[in-house]
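Practice record 12: protein with heme C.
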Amino acid sequence: MKRWMFLSGLLVFVFGAVAFVQPANMTKSIAKGKTVYVNNCMNCHMEDGKGLEGAFPPVAKSDYLKRAPKDLISVILKGQTGELKVNGVVYNGMMPAQDYLSDEEIADVLNYINNSWGNKNIKPILPSQVKLLRP
Ligand code: HEC
C-alpha cells in the first residue's frame, strides 16, 4: 500500500472518530449546562430563555449568539453593561460578571443556551477557550 493511501485512510478514520465522539461530549455538556443555567442565569433570562423585554434580553433565538465564541464567553466572564441591541430591541442594563463559574461551567452553560429553545449551534465551546480569556 502506498504511504499516501495509508495516511489518508488514517485521516478519514481519525476525523470519523472525532465526529462520532464529539456529539456524546456535547450532549453531556448541554445537560450539565442546564443546571448551571437554572442556578445562575434563569432569574434574569427566565426559564424559557425569553428574558423580560426592556430589562433582560432573550437568550432564546437571540441574534447575539451568532457572534464569535469569544464574545459570548466574555459576556459571562466580564458581565455586560451599556447599550446592547438584541433582536432589534435596545437594552441598557447591567449583567454582573459570572466569573466565579469554572471554565467548564461557562463552556457548558453556553453550549446549553446555544442548543436550547430552538437555538442550534453544534460547534462546542470548550473550557480551554474560556481559560484563554480569563484576565
Ligand atoms: C442579574 C441578571 C442577569 C443574570 C444573573 C445573568 N444575566 Fe445575562 N444579561 C443580563 C442583562 C441585563 C444583559 C444585557 C446587558 C446590557 O444591556 O448591556 C445580559 C446579556 C446577556 C447576553 C448577551 C445578550 C443576549 O441576550 O443574547 C448573554 C448571552 C447572556 N446575558 C447570558 C447569560 C448567562 C449564560 C447567564 C448565566 C451564567 C447570565 N446571562 C446571567 C442580565 C443577567
